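Reopening this ticket.

The earlier resolution said the output was attached, but the attachment link was broken on my side. Pasting everything inline this time so it's all in one place.
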Amino acid sequence: MASSSSRLALRARASLALRSPQRCYHWDPKPEDAQRLETTDDWTAMQLSRAERRAQLSFFSQFGSTTNRDNIWRPHHQLHKPVAPRDITLNALVAAGAHMGHSSKILNPSFMPYAYGTRADITIIDMEQTLAHLRRAAALVRSIVASDGTVLFIGTRADLVPAVRKAAGRLETNAYYVDGKWLPGTLTNRIVHHGLEVMQETRIVPDCVILLNPIPNLHAIRECAIEHVPTIGIIDSNVDPRIVMYPIPANDESTRTAELIAGVLSIAAREGLALLRDK
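Inline output:
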């Protein structure tokens, strides 16, 4: 009981000491320069200094950075919240690693118009041309969907599966995706693959094909060429851009680049879908 009563007495003394004006100090960054607030003039000076500091903060805050949680770049936004083709920037492409090509020793001669230079024996892709080709492909996809056309997204690598699924899911019935191995004859021998009844009820041949990894899907490119289907593909520095009809020079091994391009093209197709519904 004695110990508890002594503790209560100490707490009472501490509270009285904090309430006493002799124990109040003016805030200063340097503790050794702290001054006691003993008179009314000291309190007035403290209030004036605080008002001056607030005025300075309110004045200079308008010249600071405008970066916040909503306008900074985030890697997962490329997959879940892609931007429209008109809002895509060179900074976003560089942040996604789209400018990194392959070794300069395996540079394809037909890719030289899209090469910006070489850095540490690595071919650097010209992002200005990438941006122009990406917007051209987006305009094509928008016009195709606006005419009630269908788009096929192909990404057969394991890391590309979420990108093609998200992109096709934004277009409802006007888009499909292939996230596994492309079966040869899917388009050219479609009667055997799908059956006559399925062909009569479903549009098997798409109006546009977007390939996120074209090299492992050369069979799909050949079948699209036979069926006169326009193809859009991400072309790296070691690939001939002429294998697809609308090449997009970029790093085909970067998951972020594929998610960025697939997202931008899907948003363009969704704009075309909105135009189709308005008609």
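Reporter confirms the inline version is readable. Strands lie at 100-103, 115-119, 122-125, 151-154, 175-178, 208-211, 231-235, 246-249. The chain has ten helices and eight strands.
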